[in-house]
Amino acid sequence: MSLKGENARAGSARLEIAGFRMLFKSDSVGIITALKKRYGRFLCAGGADCRFEVSEAAGRQNPFKPAVVYDKRSLKLKRGDFEAALDLVSGAGTLKTAASEQCLDAFLRSLLSSILLRSGGFMLHSAGLVKKGRAYLFLGKSGAGKSTLSKLAAGAGAEVISDEINLLRPGKGGFRVYGSPFWGEMRADGRPGGWPLGGIFLLGKAKTNGVRPCSKPEAVKLLLRCLLNFDKSQGAGAAVLANSAELLGKAAFSRLEFTKKDASFLELI
Amino acid sequence: MKTRIKKGLAYRRIAGDLFIVDSQRAELHELNGPAALIWEGLAAGKTEAPIVSAIAAEFEVSEKEARADVKDFLEKLAEAGLVAAKQGD
Questions:
Q1: What total number of domains does chain B contain?
Q2: Which residues of A touch B21 (CB under 8 A)?
Q3: A135 plus A238 within the same structural domain
Q4: Chain A closest CA to B18's CA: distance in Å?
Q5: What are A44-60's pLDDT values in tens digits?
Q6: What pLDDT shows up at residue B68?
Q7: Where residue A4 falls among pLDDT bands split at 50, 70, 90?
Q8: CATH code at B60?
Q9: Which residues contact A114 (CB under 8 A, 6 or more apart)?
Q10: Does B30 touch chain A (CB under 8 A)?
Q11: Residue A158's domain is classified under what CATH number?
């Protein structure tokens, strides 16, 4: 679905994230300003895969976890401070949200995690960086060293895709990692772009740096633990497993033992 | 009595192991060996008797041992909330 030839009005912002183009139109200056400020590097021109008519609404974060309902025709997302509905056939949607970057961020994470999952991809808690034109992801639980690894890599001149949340989806020739606006401690803006997946590492703290093989079941378990998914349906569970099986068949998984001291681990990738 | 898999669960063999995703409870379960075979028997709608026979044949144990193992595992699955006794069977 592509909606071309939209008349841009004063209150609109068009974003492209992970290859998905989203048009937001609103009479609320606060919402459009927040979108442009928060996702400035991901603004784009041209058509859109989906368009949202956005209205401003006061709301509380409670409930904090978004509820996602997905069927063949529509996607509904709801949290205390936003509510959205998207017709998956026409690409037309509505969004009621508070005019805050935090709220828009929560909405976009919910939307993209769901769309990625149903497109064969993943939104992953991970560190991502680029080396020799290929993207490498580092999966780890909280405290495993994702932010430290990202900061050390950036300090050594490597491009970091995100230190917190990376976007992965299948494309021609295999899986690709896309530029992410969702960051952790480094608080960077990210940049649009896409890189072929070079490999996935399970991150673990150690006294010396090293790379070890990891078993496939071990990789699946950590992959699923690092997945962001708010959709509680059986279909989402089936998609999670199908996507994991596909990724496991196409990507190299290893275990990176990491001292957290310096960027010498980059030589092992 | 027939045991059925709880509605809403997704499961799949990946790299030889069987993974079960309970999206409602955000839980992941991993089964291998006889446990995976028992699950697949339940998923195919089998009753306990043919599952016991399949386990006995596949793992070369007596029917008595297999029956005890299957019974024990079905109780564990029930405790974990992954299966329930089917009404009317």
A1: 1
A2: 224, 237-238, 240-241
A3: yes
A4: 9
A5: 999 999 999 999 998 77
A6: 97
A7: very low
A8: 1.10.10
A9: A68, A70, A75, A77, A229, A230, A231, A236
A10: yes
A11: 3.90.228.20
Predicted confidence (pLDDT) per residue in A227-251, tens digit = 999 998 889 999 999 999 999 999 9
Taking the C-alpha atoms of residue A168 and residue A197, their distance in angstroms, rounded to an integer, is 8
Q: Can you tell me the distance from the alpha carbon of A160 to that of A162, in angstroms, rounded to the nearest whole number?
A: 6
3-state secondary structure B12-80: EEECCEEEEEECCCCEEEEECHHHHHHHHHHHCCCCHHHHHHHHHHHHCCCHHHHHHHHHHHHHHHHHC
Residue B1 lies in a domain: no
**In this structure, is residue A3 part of a structural domain?**
no
Burial class (CB in 10 A: 0-12, 13-18, 19+), A55: middle
Query: Is B19 within 8 Å of A241 when comparing Cβ atoms?
Result: yes
- The residue to which tokens 């299957």 are assigned: B70
Question: Tokens 């960077």 label which residue?
Answer: A188
pTM of the model: 0.90
Counting residues of chain A whose pLDDT is more than 90, the rounded percentage is 83
Count of domains forming chain A: 2
Tens digits of per-residue pLDDT, A201-235? 999 989 999 999 999 999 999 999 999 999 988 89
Complex ipTM, two decimals?
A: 0.87
Q: Do A217 and B14 touch (CB under 8 A)?
A: yes
